Amino acid sequence: MPDILHRIGVRTPDPSKVHEALSTVDGLAAWWTEDTKGSTEVGGTLEFRFAAGGFDMEVVESAPSRISWNVVGGPDEWIGTNIHWDLRQDGDWTVVLFKHEGWREPVEFMHHCSTKWGSYLMSLKSLAETGTGAAHPHDVRIDDWDQA
Amino acid sequence: MPDILHRIGVRTPDPSKVHEALSTVDGLAAWWTEDTKGSTEVGGTLEFRFAAGGFDMEVVESAPSRISWNVVGGPDEWIGTNIHWDLRQDGDWTVVLFKHEGWREPVEFMHHCSTKWGSYLMSLKSLAETGTGAAHPHDVRIDDWDQA
Q1: E-assigned strands of chain A?
Q2: Which ipTM score applies to this complex?
Q3: Contact call for A6 and B114, based on CB within 8 A
């Protein structure tokens, strides 16, 4: 089963910067989509909305070194997939390993989502390093499927 | 076997822009790495060099809608893997589907390469749309493994 994998390094000696960006509604709204609502507690549901639709995620795990979500609402291709964020501090860097697993087929939409995740991870890096991310609708356009 | 997948859309009515950026040494040097040498003919070898090392690719296919390379030199994890570029024109967009297949294991280096490919694809998009890419050593730094 094909997975989307990414790795970024965030230059900061403070591991809480990235963790907060992934474990609070305000943090998520600052790098992924401004229209973020819900609960970041384990068992809670997060609602992410974009011009073209959105995703609902159940929070499955929330620890300092790992955050995991299960997709419970959104496009058919996403339902039942899982998103894992593994964090570790290596000196002055917070290293983020990202995995979006459980895709049934490597469809063209998966190619789009892979590139888009990479672009949003750079927004997360920017947020944690500089205080400013590029959350939707201010996100970088990668292709003709992107909607402002 | 895990693959790296990406999709970008390049806003241009002229499909030759992206094709030239992938099928000429000058084009490749303008978005991937300035230190590019070799032959883009089928059966030829391309040599891409970066601060941290490089890759040698044998050109396996070179058609208007598909370019494929086989990795014959570089890091162990890359040897024997294949890179495919599928191009199609959708109105004012050249859609690029990218696949780097044949990775034996989803190692941490593969996560890095996935994000880095996405970033370089945005450089390719910029080159074809504006005339200016961000080839190495002017590439975007994504993590602590990136070297200028």
Answers
A1: 4-11, 35-38, 45-50, 53-63, 66-73, 82-90, 93-101
A2: 0.97
A3: yes
